Amino acid sequence: METVVGIEDNDDGRFEDSGVDRSSSALSSPKQISNPIVYKLVRVEGDGKLVPATDDEVMEVGDFLEYENSEMHVVTNTGQSLECISIERSSSGKLRLECLEEADLGKLNAKLQYIEQILQKVKEEEKHRISCGSPVHSHENIDSQCSADKFPVMDGKVQSETPCQEIPSIASSFNYTHSNQSGSIDQCSRPSEGVIESGSSASAVYSNLKSDISMSDGEICLDKLSIRELHELFKVTFGRETTVKDKQWLKRRIAMSLTNSCDVSATTFIIKDNKIVRKFEEDSSGNMNAGSLISSENMTEEDVNFKDSSAVDACGIDDNQVVSETRSENGLEYENYQTGQRAAKRIRRPTKRYIEELSENESREHNPRLSISNKTVGFGHVSPTSNVRPARNAFSEARTYSTRLDSLGGSNVQIPCVSRVRRSRPRKDIASLMKFHPTGMGEAEKLSNKLLEHSSDAGSDFSDKVLKSRMPAKFHQPSSSEPVKEQCPVICPIELRQELRPKRADPSGHTSDDNNIVTVPTAKGGMRRKHHRAWTLVEVIKLVEGVSRCGAGRWSEIKRLSFASYSYRTSVDLKDKWRNLLKASFALAPADEGINSRKHGTAPIPEKILLRVRELAEMNSQVPPNYSSSQLASGGGSVHGDRSGYL
DNA sequence: TTTAGGG
DNA sequence: CCCTAAA
User: Fold this and answer.
1) Is residue A158 located within the same domain as residue A267?
2) Which range among A14-18, A204-208, A527-531 has the greatest average pLDDT?
3) CA-to-CA distance for A253 and A248, rounded, in angstroms?
4) Residue A244 and residue A231: Cα distance in Å, rounded?
5) Which chain C positions come under 7 Å from a protein C-beta?
6) Protein A639 CA to nucleic acid B7 C1', in Å?
7) Residue A518: which nucleotide is closest by CA–C1'?
8) Residues A410, A423: one domain?
9) What is the mean pLDDT of residues A246-263?
10) I want to staple A200 with a disulfide (CB 3.0 to 4.6 A). Which of A105, A157, A254, A315 is the partner?
11) Residues 572-611 of A with CB under 7 A from strand C
C-alpha cells in the first residue's frame, strides 16, 4: 500500500521509490514482498514491442502479492485433467482443496507470466534509468520508455529471467489474493508444465475475443486488455454489459468466472508446450462441471471473503490509482461488484436450499397443514428423500385422490379431483365422528382425516348429484345401473341406506355424503383404512352379477371386471360382502324383508337381490356357515335376517 | 397376490 | 371392516 501511495502521490510520476526494487526482488524471492504495487500496463504487440498502456490499462499488481507470506504446501493430485493443490495459509490454518482446470491454470500462469514481465521491465527500466540518470516522470513515461528495444525480446516474447521454480508460488499468491481475506484458500492450482517451462508467456484465450485481444504467437494475456476489451470480455463471460471501469475489478471477475468454470468458452484453450491448444470439448465440459460443482460450494464463503478484499482494494488501492475514476465510481463499482456477486451467487447456490424449499412446497401443496412434519424430513437430503412425504400422508392423500378419481372415473364424467370444495349443509355425522376420534390418533392423522373427509366429501357431493339425476327407477338391472353405480361411490352411510331402498331412490333425500374415512395408524406404522363405506345397492347388484358371472370365490376377477372403478372395494371386500349377502339371503324371510329394514332403520336389500344371491349360493353349493338346511327347507319364513341391515 | 375364514 | 393364514 505504501508503495502504491508513493507511486501515485508522485505528481511527476517518478517511479523511483524502493517499491520498484522490491518488486524486482520479488521476482527472485516473492515472499519478501508484502506490499501491493501498482504497475503500469503495457501491451506486448505481436512483434514483441511494448506499447505504452493507456491510463485505463493501469493494473495493480500488488494485489497479487498480497499474501506473499502465506505458506503454501503444494500437494499435487495428479489426475487426468484435474489436478488439485492444497494450500494452507498460515494466517488461518484453514485448508481448502479445489480443482482448477488446466485452462484456468493456464490463464493464471499467463497472468503470472505477464506480471513477471512487467516486473522485469520495471527492473530493467529502473536499471536503465539509474544508469542513464534520466528520471521517469510518470507512468506513461515509464510505459513510453518501456519500448521493446529496452527489454530482452526474443521471438516476439518478452523473456522472463525469473527462475521458473518460483512461478508457482507467485501464481498461487496471485490467484488467491483477492478472495481470501478471511483466510480460507478456495482455489488451488498446480505447477503446470506451462508455467515451469515458461520461457514464454502462455495463456488461455477467449476464442471469441481473439480479434480484440492482443496476441503474440498465440499468447494472450488478460491483463493486456484495455477497459473496452475487458468490457467485451466481461460481456462475453457474463452475458451482460458492465459499466464498471475498474479494470482490476473486471479482470478479477473474469478471472473468477474462469476459475469457477461457470462460463462457456472460458476454457476453450489449454496451454501445452508453450502453445495454446484447443481443448477437447469433452474435457472442458466434464471438468467444467466438476469444477463448478466444487466452486459453487466455495462460492458462498468466497463471496464474503471477496467482499472484504474488494473493499480493501476499492477503497485503498484503486483510489490511489492514476486511473481516471472518481471515488463515487469506485463505490458504484463496488456496488456493481457486490450485486454481481450476489447474482452469481443466486445462480449457483440454489442447491440445498432450493431443494428444501422445493420439497416443502410440494408437501404444502399436498397437505399444507402437515408441512411441519415435512420440515423435519430431509433437511440436507437430496431430492429422493426430500420428496418423500410421511407415509401416512402419502397414503391418505393417494387414497383421497384415487377415490375421487375413481368415483368419477368409471363414468363419462371426468372431474378433476382437486379443488372441488363442497359448500353445502354442514354435516353432523362428521362432527360427531371427529368428536369421537380414537384418542390415540395423532394430530397429523386428524388433519389428514379432515382433509380426506373434505375431499371425498366434495367428490361424493358431486357424484350424489349425478346419481340422483341418473338414478334409474329400476335398479335391478345390473348392466344399466352400472354406470350409475360408478358415479356414486362415496356416500354417507345414512344416506346410503336411504338410497339403498330399492323403490324409492329418494332423489329428494339430501344425499349428503360423508363417508367416514378414518385412517388408523397401525403399530407397524402403516395405515389402516378403518372406514366403513356402506355398500350401495348398485354395488350389491354389481356384486351379485359378478358372482353370477364369474362365480363366487373369484373375487379378484369380479373386482377386476365389475369393480374396476371402485378402488375402495377390494376383492376382500367383495368377498366379505358376499358372505354377508349370503347370510342375509338365507336368513331372509321373504315376507319380512320390509319389516327387517324398517325395524333396524337400515336400507333393505331388495328381495329380488337376496333371492338371486341365494340362488347363486345354491348353485355354487354355497351355504352360509350356520345355516341349517332344515331352515332352508322349511321355507325360512320365520327367520329374520337381522344382518340384512348390514347391507 | 389371492382366498378363505375368524374377529 | 380388519387381520391373517394358507395357497
Assistant:
1) yes
2) A527-531
3) 8
4) 8
5) 1-4
6) 24
7) C1
8) yes
9) 61
10) A157
11) 572-573, 576, 579
Structural contact between residues A174 and A109, judged by C-beta atoms closer than 8 angstroms: no
Question: How long is the CA A394 to C1' C7 vector, in angstroms?
Answer: 32
Q: Which nucleotide is nearest to A568 if distance is taken from CA to C1'?
A: C1
> Of A98-107, A188-197, A228-237, which gets the smallest average pLDDT?
A188-197
| A148-193 pLDDT, tens digit each | 333 333 333 333 333 333 333 333 333 333 333 333 333 333 333 3
Bridge partners of A384, per DSSP, are none
CA–C1' span, A519 to C4, in Å? Answer: 20
Residue A1 CA to residue A298 CA, distance in Å, equals 28
Smallest CA–C1' separation from A580: which nucleotide?
Answer: C1
Task: Show the beta-strand stretches assigned E in A147-288.
Answer: 153-154, 157-158, 269-272, 275-278
Considering the domain boundaries, does residue A564 fall inside one? yes
Answer yes or no: do A560 and A612 share one domain: yes
What is the tally of structural domains in chain A? 4
Q: A454 pLDDT exceeds 50?
A: no
Q: What pLDDT was estimated at residue A532?
A: 78
Domain that holds residue A364: 352-380
Nucleotide with smallest C1' distance to residue A556 CA: B2
Percent of chain A with pLDDT over 90: 0
Q: How many angstroms is C1' of C3 away from CA of A571?
A: 15
Phi, psi for A42 (deg, rounded to 5): -125, 155
The residue assigned the cell 337400515 is A602
User: How do residues A557-615 score in pLDDT, each as one tens digit?
Assistant: 888 888 888 888 888 889 998 888 888 877 765 544 444 444 445 567 777 787 778 77
Distance A637 CA to B6 C1' (A): 29
In a domain, A65, yes or no: yes
Crossing angle (nearest 10°) for helices A478-487 and A391-409? 140
> Do A436 and A409 share a domain, yes or no?
yes
Q: Residue A227: is its pLDDT beyond 60?
A: yes
Average pLDDT, chain A: 44
